[in-house]
Amino acid sequence: MSRSNERLLNNALNADFQHMLRPYYFTQKLLCASKYSIKDSFVLPNSRAYCAVSVLALGFITYFYVISSPSEIYLEMSIMYILTVAWIFENFVMIIMFSLGCERFYSCLDDIRNKCTIAYDLSPERNISRKTAKNILRLCDVRFSKMRPCGLFVVDAALPLRLLGLVATYCIVLLQFAFL
């Protein structure tokens, strides 16, 4: 097998993992910041042409932002408010999708742990399946922990609810300061 085929087989993704990475992949594509692309269940580096086009697109966006005067930008503040709300809503939807993907992953791990427990209990004699189930259970007990980005919060199904509660609390505090 050639070297490039071996590297390609090491980058294979299953369908569930692809589905979990889809929001992140689309966000990178939207921001012209994608370093890799997912095609036919494989992670492939982007071509030089894609990188050149994304650099040119970002250059044009920066150029048009710089040449437009600030007075023209802030004349239509209502548009800025609408764009800000749309941007916040998009970020919140991305957080929800990422949380759902992580929660599916956690539930799959719990399912694996339950099935290994059943397999361990069903085979009383010392055989390879019992040993494998025991090793998987040990690994799940020792190595598994929910994802904690920067150690700040746990990414699970309750994350969007916690963030919504945080936003509501800050809105109430800001309203209290505005009306005092």
Automatic annotation (TrEMBL):
The keyword Transferase belongs to this UniProt entry's keyword annotation: no
**Record localization:** Cell membrane
Q: Which UniProt keywords apply?
A: Cell membrane, Membrane, Transmembrane, Transmembrane helix
GO CC field: plasma membrane
InterPro entries tied to this protein: 7TM_chemorcpt
Its GO biological process terms?
sensory perception of taste
Keyword Transmembrane helix in annotation: yes
Q: What is this protein called?
A: Gustatory receptor
Report membrane topology. Answer: Multi-pass membrane protein
Segments spanning the bilayer are 49-67, 79-100, 153-179
